[in-house]
Amino acid sequence: MYLSDDLLGLAPYIILAVALAYLFRINQLLKGTPDEIRKLSGSRWTADQLRTTYRRLEKTSIDYTDKLPPKLDRRYIVTGGSGLVGGFIVLQLLARGHSPKSIRIVDIRKAERDDMLSGPATKVDFIKTDITSQASVDAAFKKAWDSSVAHLPLTVFHTAAVIIPSDRSKYYYGFPEAVNVRGTKNVLEAAKAAGADIFSSTSSGSIAIQPIQPFVAPWASSPRRFWQVLDEQDFYKPLRPHEEFFGNYSASKAAAERIVCGENVEEFRTGCIRPVNGVYGNPTDNTVGGPLARPVLPTWISHIVQNFVHAANVAVAHLHHEAVLVNPLAPQAGRPFVVTDPNPPITYSDLYMAIKTLSIHPLFVMNLPPVVMLVLAHGLEWYSVLPHKVPFLKAMLPELRGDIRYLKPGLFSICTHLVASNKESSKPVSDGGLGYTGVITTLEGMVFQILEWNREHASMDGGTKRKAYTTSVSAAEKIQHLGIMAQDFVAQGH
């Protein structure tokens, strides 16, 4: 039996129609919210609710000082102390009465945060340090302390890391591995040499995220792994292969977490805090600060449900962690704890609603078809790795620039429905937990961040201009482009 020439001529159009129908179906699935997640999500924020919260915080600012764990008579090194989580740790240590002389910030750059550019934070010692260099780290840790605190026991809060969330190819693993893995090893060695007995490291809840598989059968109810629960269960299983993490960032943080927890002994207690995806709390963050800085926001995730965590809550969790690790026999040592805000997850549409309702700057949210962005992401990833696979093309293919360079398939795994569990960290200390309770809700935290944004910008040409901030992603790019790790890359053959 033979097909007619007319039917053969239609074959390409039939194939195209089937392909488009399939992509349309995948687009529908990616725009959905599974019932399991819908039940866990809180109610959507309203304009009245947002304005009422804004007015309340405008009159009475958030003050959680009385909720901090009691002061311990110790001295502190905070790597990444100029950043989001590290900065809040420094501010909380000062708030509960520690002398600036007892705190040391070890970071690649000085703080740009307005809340650290005045008051006691300006008196905290800062040492510019490249944590990929053992010599640089050793020099920062060996610097003499003021005689009034030199005798105190030492806690190290290790928060320094680089975040480039979209890359998943091993061709780009060298940079996050240099900072997040080998940098952590360097800090651990320096901490032990300096006589530290507590080492609390900021890990990442994204370690638990497994890659989404969006291209499923047309009759499937949702993409595979379209919703996930973020907890610590993966820590008690063998470390997953690189390709089973959503990207290089989570793979490097998982490796670093195992190293930190593996160093735990009675005289050197270690462990990790896993903030869930994503962390916010200052205009320098990517979660809230990123959209605030844009007049137009292209997105395909307005409906996505996720837990978020304010960096102040992460810092509080670190202080609870330290208070537990003071006990040399604490069973909580040598493991990670997930932390999030003390409320149900929200949607990204709630965040966008808050900005559009409260910010002095207008925001236009441009909702895009997720399947179009997914197909484009695969094409851009293929383009970006091609020069690594075919080296002679490197000089011929222009490098991707602007936001488009971040559009890669890894983003679709961290932009799925992600619900976090505080179950372990919230347990009483007597039951093996940290006794952690968040001090700021997501509603309060995001509204207050918009309030601070408005205050910072009110005097800038009548609030028409937007201040440029160095975010964690842009900071990572600057470090990479400065070539700080160049020598390491050459040595490793990258």
From TrEMBL:
<feature type="transmembrane region" description="Helical">
    <location>
        <begin position="6"/>
        <end position="24"/>
    </location>
</feature>
<keyword id="KW-0812">Transmembrane</keyword>
<dbReference type="GO" id="GO:0000252">
    <property type="term" value="F:3-beta-hydroxysteroid dehydrogenase [NAD(P)+]/C4-decarboxylase activity"/>
</dbReference>
<protein>
    <recommendedName>
        <fullName>3-beta hydroxysteroid dehydrogenase/isomerase domain-containing protein</fullName>
    </recommendedName>
</protein>
<dbReference type="InterPro" id="IPR036291">
    <property type="entry name" value="NAD(P)-bd_dom_sf"/>
</dbReference>
<dbReference type="GO" id="GO:0006696">
    <property type="term" value="P:ergosterol biosynthetic process"/>
</dbReference>
<dbReference type="GO" id="GO:0005783">
    <property type="term" value="C:endoplasmic reticulum"/>
</dbReference>
<dbReference type="InterPro" id="IPR002225">
    <property type="entry name" value="3Beta_OHSteriod_DH/Estase"/>
</dbReference>
<keyword id="KW-0560">Oxidoreductase</keyword>
<keyword id="KW-0472">Membrane</keyword>
<dbReference type="InterPro" id="IPR050425">
    <property type="entry name" value="NAD(P)_dehydrat-like"/>
</dbReference>
<dbReference type="Pfam" id="PF01073">
    <property type="entry name" value="3Beta_HSD"/>
</dbReference>
<keyword id="KW-1133">Transmembrane helix</keyword>
<comment type="similarity">
    <text>Belongs to the NAD(P)-dependent epimerase/dehydratase family. Dihydroflavonol-4-reductase subfamily.</text>
</comment>
<feature type="domain" description="3-beta hydroxysteroid dehydrogenase/isomerase">
    <location>
        <begin position="77"/>
        <end position="355"/>
    </location>
</feature>
